[in-house]
């Protein structure tokens, strides 16, 4: 097991556990996510990956353990506070804002906006106008980045599954998060889109965003990730460089001899 | 002339309902909160405005008005109007802060229950409201002095139109603002909105309070238009007539809220003439509640039908496109 | 002492009426998963139909049974027509539809019978005298009838096949559907039972209040909600317990605290339950 050195850790998960009724969904999970890396979180179905995501992002509260974002303790904080601290995420099934346009979906992603208060909305001051202009620029750039420009004025409801994935990725990026959690971004996506997604994720790394991605698609993981964490039955089974994890006998066994 | 006065009165009433519906639009159309107790904020606004503007006990005007109420502060009506909005907002804040974390159908039941509790209090605390008797003589600003009594309904309508236009402009502004956008995001998918950093409970509470403010204003307009305030006016069916207006007009569109109220008023007033249909006449004579009950049957049927077959309403929610000032193509990102 | 005992008996009597209503609502909630605002109108219909049947010459017990059957059928028809087609549409649609239905039913009754109270056809019952105690007959009768009805419901749910299927559907509707347990028959039976019990509740309410008014069911609705939510939504046994607490709360509150506020105590209880312990006192479903 190898883990990155301390001062380069963007997200630290330490001894996190969660039980539902009698079932131990996450069992003392511990790993670090290196700053600027793309780290993969893999494991068979039911390994606890989605639960762990929800624990990290504050949707559910762990029974024990610590989660630190750049040294800031996250456990116990509400989900929106955690998001504002710099942690972004996407969901397995894209959660678009269906009644809003693609453009507005993106604009809604921005945070730290003085205009998002009652008074600030009615009487936009300079701070609000500047923030709005900044977000507009960012949204346009993301539309180009994701290739969704031609769809900007339409309803998010009309987007295909793959386009929705791109939209929610873009929306999560609007807040310029420090760490981005991606929950199966390539699931159910066609080949071309998969390639696009992979390229976009690689671009993110180039821009200094730290990414933790849950994926079942092994090719994607092996090609894209600097570091891989394997979960099995709620615990961290192994972690390290993709190659070493791939050949780890425990990992192979966990996948029941299937191709890892 | 009598007919004109009748229609003017109707239009005024419809516009007041429009303000009420606007309040519900902010709470439900924007923030997605199922408020089944809206009439409570309407009542609070009406009583606040009435009690603040009625001449104080013991004054000459009090006696001239046949005074039998306890509280009165003699404040000018515009001030009472503002206070009514504030009161509506405060009560909404109170009710909302307890329930904003409740899931939708629990929120509906909780708001409904709290409105009924309020109605119970208003009915029983007769020192405040004169209970079943109500308070008459609520000031009607400028009536007979200088505006002649026959022209008063027209003047009041004009004033109402101005107020409604102002409140509508504010609502439209708010809906397109970043605040409105954040609210709609929370409405669409609260979990996703929170994952983006939106402080959902706080946003919803503010929207709820604002809806209460609007309902409070409506209450003030209402009581000064009629000149009376009486707890029996604020029954649960009002809440649901406002709901019908909102659904008819288009829940996501502030203009739709006002349009819906106007359309609903037109529909319910047309049932007034049902009593004149020849074969219904004997029934109407035997049972005086016949036509009023028929009106409510119509409201009930409309609620069922609109929800099932016409849920989007008349005016859809506006889809906002990117602003036109795109950078020239070919520019380096 | 006698005053206390009287209040206690009235409290239990009110609780008994509420429990009948609450159990019916629990049953329907178990299957549909939404709070039906038109439920109170089924009580109103039950009471008025019993009144009509008695006016036509039937005895009260027979009239009540007839009312239960008729309202039961009405319940199934209305549910099939109005609620089943939109069960997937979400809370707003279901809640607003149920409110709309409530207005239609209540005002239909008002159109036929007028707003003024109608006297419920209960023969005058002189109270029992036990030593120095005056025990009013009506609440005791209500308690006995309600207890019998609850016992029947319990036997049905626990020991019959239909009852077991109803419980399975309430526990996990999706699973029940997938495993083929849920059929149209189970749903229809639940609707029927829920409505018939409501009708019985209406008759008991009529006995307790004597004055029938079109608004009687609607006025009772929040009280029943309070009992159901207090006892844990979807749980008929919890509803019975909740009903008892609410009934006692109303009577004692009215007798010792503030006479005009009777029902308001139930509403307050409801709000407190929702805020402090939304799952109710007894957790889980039946």
Summarize the structure in words.
The complex is a heterotrimer of chains A (260), B (333) and C (286). With 260 residues, chain A is of the alpha/beta class. Chain A has helices spanning 49-56, 79-84, 102-107, 118-122, 126-146, 161-174, 191-206, 218-224, 242-246, 249-254, and strands spanning 9-20, 23-34, 38-42, 64-69, 72-73, 87-89, 179-183, 210-214, 227-232, 235-240. In chain A, helix 5 (126-146) runs antiparallel to helix 6. Helices cover 67% and strands 1% of the residues of chain B. In chain B, helix 1 packs parallel to helix 7 (152-176) and helix 2 packs across helix 10 (200-226). The model of chain B is unreliable at 328-333 (pLDDT under 50). Helices cover 74% and strands 3% of the residues of chain C. The model of chain C has no long low-confidence stretch (mean pLDDT 85). The longest helix of chain C is centred in the N-terminal third of the chain and has 31 residues, at 2-32. Classes of the chains: A alpha/beta (260), B mainly alpha (333), C mainly alpha (286). Chain B binds chain C through residues 34, 36, 98-99, 102, 104-106, 108-110, 112-114, 116-117, 120-121, 123-124, 237, 240, 243, 247, 283, 287-290, 293-294, 296-297, 299-304, 307-308, 311, and chain C through 34-35, 82, 85-86, 91-93, 95-97, 99-108, 110-115, 222, 225-226, 229, 258, 260-261, 263-264, 267-268, 270-271, 274-275, 278.
SS content category of chain C:
mainly alpha
Largest sheet of chain B: 2 strands, antiparallel
**What number of structural domains do the residues of chain C give?**
1
Average of per-residue pLDDT values of chain C: 85
Question: C-alpha Rg of chain B, in Å?
Answer: 21 Å
The residue fraction in helices of chain B comes out at 55-70%
What is the distance, rounded to the nearest whole angstrom, between the alpha carbons of the first and last residues of chain C?
Answer: 38 Å
The gross shape of chain C turns out to be globular
Largest interface: A-B, 51 and 36 residues
Q: If strands are numbered along the chain, what order do they take across the biggest sheet of chain C?
A: 1-4
The major beta sheet of chain C can be summarized as: 2 strands, antiparallel
Number of strands of chain C: 4
Q: What is the assembly state of the chains in this entry?
A: heterotrimer
- Text of the CATH class of chain C: Mainly Alpha
The CATH architecture of chain C would be Orthogonal Bundle
Helix content of chain C: over 70%
Question: Regions of chain C with pLDDT < 50 over 5+ consecutive residues?
Answer: none
């Amino acid at each position: 097991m190898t883990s990155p050195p301390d001062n380069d850790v963007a997200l630290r998960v330490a001894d996190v556990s969660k039980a539902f009724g009698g079932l131990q969904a996450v069992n003392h999970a511990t790993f670090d996510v290196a700053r600027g890396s793309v780290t993969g979180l893999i494991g068979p179905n039911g390994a606890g990956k989605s639960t762990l995501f929800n624990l990290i992002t504050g949707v559910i509260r762990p029974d024990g353990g610590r989660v630190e974002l750049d040294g800031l303790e996250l456990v116990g904080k509400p989900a929106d506070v955690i998001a504002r601290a710099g942690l972004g995420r996407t969901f397995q099934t894209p959660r678009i804002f269906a009644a809003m346009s693609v453009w507005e979906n993106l604009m809604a992603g921005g945070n730290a906006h003085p205009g998002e208060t009652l008074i600030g909305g009615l009487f936009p001051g300079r701070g609000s106008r500047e923030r709005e202009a900044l977000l507009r620029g960012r949204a346009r750039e993301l539309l180009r980045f994701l290739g969704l420009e031609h769809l900007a004025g339409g309803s998010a409801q009309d987007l295909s599954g793959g386009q929705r994935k791109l939209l929610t990725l873009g929306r999560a990026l609007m807040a310029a998060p420090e760490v981005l959690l991606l929950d199966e971004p390539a699931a159910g996506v066609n080949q071309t889109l998969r390639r696009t997604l992979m390229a976009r994720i690689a671009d993110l790394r180039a821009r200094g965003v730290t990414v933790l991605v849950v994926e079942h698609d092994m090719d994607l993981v092996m090609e894209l990730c600097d570091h891989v964490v394997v979960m099995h039955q709620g615990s961290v089974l192994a972690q390290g460089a993709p190659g070493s994890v791939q050949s780890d006998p425990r990992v192979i066994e966990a996948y029941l001899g299937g191709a890892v | 002339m009598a007919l004109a006065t009748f229609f003017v009165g109707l239009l005024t009433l419809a516009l007041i309902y429009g303000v009420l519906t606007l309040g519900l639009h902010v709470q439900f159309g924007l923030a997605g909160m199922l408020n089944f107790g809206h009439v409570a904020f309407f009542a609070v606004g009406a009583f606040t405005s009435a009690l603040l503007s009625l001449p104080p006990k013991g004054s000459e005007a009090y006696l001239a008005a046949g005074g039998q109420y306890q509280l009165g502060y003699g404040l000018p009506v515009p001030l009472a109007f503002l206070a009514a909005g504030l009161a509506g907002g405060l009560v909404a804040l109170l009710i909302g802060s307890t329930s904003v974390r409740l899931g939708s159908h629990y929120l509906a039941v909780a708001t409904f229950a709290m409105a009924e509790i309020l109605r119970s209090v208003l009915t029983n605390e007769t020192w405040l409201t004169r209970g079943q008797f109500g308070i008459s003589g609520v000031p009607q600003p400028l009536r007979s002095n200088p505006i002649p009594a026959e022209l008063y309904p027209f003047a009041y309508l004009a004033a109402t139109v101005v107020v409604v236009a102002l409140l509508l402009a504010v609502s439209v502004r708010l809906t397109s603002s970043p605040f409105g956008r954040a609210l709609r995001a929370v409405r669409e998918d609260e979990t996703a909105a929170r994952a983006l950093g939106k402080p959902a409970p706080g946003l919803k509470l503010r929207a709820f309070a604002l809806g209460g403010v609007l309902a409070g204003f409506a209450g003030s307009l209402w009581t000064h238009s009629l000149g009376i305030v009486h707890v029996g006016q604020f029954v649960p069916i009002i809440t649901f007539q406002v709901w019908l207006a909102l659904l008819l007009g288009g829940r996501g569109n502030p203009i739709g809220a006002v349009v819906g109220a106007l359309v609903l008023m037109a529909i319910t007033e047309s049932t007034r003439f049902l009593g004149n249909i020849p074969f219904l006449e004997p029934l109407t004579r035997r049972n005086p509640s016949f036509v009023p009950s028929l009106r409510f049957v119509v409201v009930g049927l409309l609620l069922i039908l609109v929800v099932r077959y016409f849920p989007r309403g008349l005016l859809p929610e506006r889809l906002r496109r990117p602003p036109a000032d795109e950078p020239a193509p070919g520019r380096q990102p | 002492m006698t005053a206390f005992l009287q209040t206690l008996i009235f409290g239990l009597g009110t609780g008994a009426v509420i429990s009948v209503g609450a159990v019916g609502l629990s049953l329907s909630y178990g299957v549909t998963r939404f709070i039906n605002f038109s439920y109170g109108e089924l009580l109103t219909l039950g009471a008025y139909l019993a009144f009509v049947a008695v006016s036509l010459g039937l005895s009260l017990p027979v009239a009540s049974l007839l009312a239960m059957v008729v309202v039961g059928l009405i319940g199934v028809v209305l549910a099939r027509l109005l609620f089943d087609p939109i069960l997937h549409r979400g809370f707003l649609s279901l809640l607003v539809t149920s409110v709309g239905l409530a207005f239609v039913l209540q005002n239909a009754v008002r159109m036929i019978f007028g707003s003024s109270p109608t006297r419920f056809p209960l023969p005058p019952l002189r109270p029992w005298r036990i030593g120095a105690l005056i025990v009013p007959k009506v609440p005791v009768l209500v308690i006995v009838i309600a207890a019998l009805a609850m016992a029947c419901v319990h036997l049905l749910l626990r020991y019959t096949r239909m009852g077991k299927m109803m419980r399975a559907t309430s526990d996990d509707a999706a699973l029940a559907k997938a495993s083929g347990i849920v059929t149209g028959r189970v749903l229809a039976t639940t609707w029927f039972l829920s409505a018939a019990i409501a009708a019985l509740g209406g008759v008991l309410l009529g006995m307790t209040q004597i004055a029938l008014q079109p608004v009687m069911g609607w006025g009772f609705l929040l009280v029943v909600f309070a009992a159901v939510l207090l006892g844990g939504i979807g749980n008929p046994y919890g509803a019975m317990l909740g009903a008892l607490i609410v009934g006692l709360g109303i009577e004692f509150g009215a007798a010792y605290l503030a006479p005009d506020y009777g029902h308001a105590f139930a509403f307050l209880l409801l709000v407190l339950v929702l805020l402090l312990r939304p799952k109710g006192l007894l957790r889980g479903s039946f």
